Amino acid sequence: MSKMHKYRLSIREIRKLTQLIKQFFGVDFDRKASWEAVKIDREREIYIVNGLPAFIRIGEELYPTVVCVERRMTLLPKVIVDMGAVPYIVNGADVMMPGVVRIEGSFKGGCIVAVSDEKYGRILAVARSLISSDVASEISTGRGFKNIHHVGDVFWKIMKNLGLV
User: Which residue would you say has higher pLDDT here, 165 or 55?
Assistant: First the structure.
């Protein structure tokens, strides 16, 4: 991993990002807010809005951070998992259907969802659904959600080192 680089976003970059965020997550972010980015490497970045890590970029894809979802800056359908699944998910494992207790909200395959634990309701990860909510509520085997960003990953560690979480 190369050296991280933190910088302010240009007006053009902010405009492009806010349009993408509105298009994919239905949330209007203030263009006049303080927007910064932490470039981890060529493929990965963290976007910080008014001091809060709001979004990450992996390649060309944009995802809300665990912090963004936890603070309800963006609303996502939620997958609640049992406490036995928590250690695996926070170590980067995908969400397997036997660990899913319930689903809140509806979604199609390929949508971004939040993953939380059943005991405390804390957001553990942001994942991509591999199946729709209708199918997920009916099956109890196999892999249901691809873990994209979780508590303890490289993004989380950088946010923690910068004092953002």
Answer: 55
